[in-house]
Amino acid sequence: MARLIVAGAAGRMGRILTSLIVQQPAHSLAGAVEAKGVKAVGSDAGEVAGVGTLNVRITEDYAAIATPDTVTLDFTNATASLEHLAIAAAKGAAIVIGSTGFTAEMEARARELAPRTRTLIAPNMSIGINVLIRLVSEAAKLLGGFDAEVLEIHHRTKIDAPSGTALALGRAVAAARGQDFQKAAVFGREGITGARPEGQIGVMALRGGDAVGDHTVIFAGQGERLELIHRTQSREALASGALKAAAWLEHQANGLYSIRDVLGL
Ligand SMILES: NC(=O)c1ccc[n+]([C@@H]2O[C@H](COP(=O)([O-])OP(=O)(O)OC[C@H]3O[C@@H](n4cnc5c(N)ncnc54)[C@H](O)[C@@H]3O)[C@@H](O)[C@H]2O)c1
Q1: 154 catalytic per annotation
Q2: 47-105: pLDDT as tens digits
Q3: Which of 30, 183, 214, 229 could join 3 via S-S bond, C-beta 3.0 to 4.6 A?
């Protein structure tokens, strides 16, 4: 049985994770963490998630509960996840990070810390998105002369843009075409931009309402367009992917893994 810790327990993903964990006999909730000073600290994680009392108090002290026999599911934010990764690495606890919004420096630090324990970092836990990334990579190779644009829409409260998934899709196009993504990417356009440079990869972020997350990759050629679209209809798909990842990660050797390792993609 995987002993799971939910970091960000009062958040949207955290509450869904808690509710899924209690439904699955293969998992148990070993702990729940929230940010210092947040109202939910000290409350019962089950009550916060709306699934009744579980006798697991939400703590603000992750270091006190991270042990080698636990797997942490971290859906907080990039800064908090990096702090948790450092603690997990020091304690030998396994950690699945779903948070997005890592800067290049933060990614470098995460790559340095991750191999010291069992770490899985995935900006999107859904099987559909991970199949999309593979299809996009194939399409980018097959449609060499086509212009690639990535478009995403998320709910109005998302704090980072573009989404980690949009970046992963853009990177998949760049890698398939032997390009440096940072050099090829343009994030939004405005004013007299001039003609579209060859090889540019556009990444556009829309925000509004309660959209869980839709991603479209457009390959535009002369007289035709291919559009590959994925729509996330509920956070349960993402949360259950994270639980699958946790169960898989528990039994791996130290190292940095991705969700594609779990799905065999
Ligand atoms: N990988 C995926 O499939 C996937 C899916 C959905 C969301 N996300 C990402 O996960 C993150 C969380 O998303 P959300 O919609 O649940 O956000 P949210 O704002 O609803 O929840 C985040 C929670 O983390 C808590 N938090 C902040 N700092 C903390 C700390 N130091 N320790 C413990 N808890 C802390 C906040 O108080 C909040 O309750 C975002 O980065 C989002 O982009 C990833």
Answers
A1: yes
A2: 999 999 999 999 999 999 999 999 999 999 999 999 999 999 999 999 999 999 999 99
A3: 30
Structural domain that includes position 7: 2-125+235-263
Same domain, 105 and 171: no
Per the structure, the count of domains in the chain is 2
Ligand 1 pocket member 72 (CB < 6 A): no
Instruction: Say if residue 1's pLDDT is above 80.
Output: no
Q: What is the average pLDDT score of the chain?
A: 96
Of the residues 75, 82, 120, which should be mutated to test ligand 1's pocket, given the most ligand atoms within 8 Å of the CB? Answer: 75
Q: What's this model's pTM, rounded to 2 decimal places?
A: 0.89
185 with 259, same domain?
no
Reduced 3-state DSSP string for the chain: CEEEEEECCCCHHHHHHHHHHHHCCCEEEEEEECCCCCCCCCCEHHHHHCCCCCCCEEECCHHHCCCCCEEEEECCCHHHHHHHHHHHHHHCCEEEECCCCCCHHHHHHHHHHHHHCEEEECCCCCHHHHHHHHHHHHHHHHCCCCEEEEEEEECCCCCCCCCHHHHHHHHHHHHHCCCCHHHHEEECCCCCCCCCCCCCEEEEEEECCCCCCEEEEEEECCCCEEEEEEECCCHHHHHHHHHHHHHHHCCCCCEEECHHHHHCC
Question: Does 158 qualify as catalytic in the annotation?
Answer: yes
| pLDDT for residue 105 | 97
Taking the centre of ligand 1 as the mean of its atom positions, its distance from the CA of residue 195, in whole angstroms, is: 39
42 and 82 within one domain: yes
Catalytic residue among 27, 84, 91, 154: 154
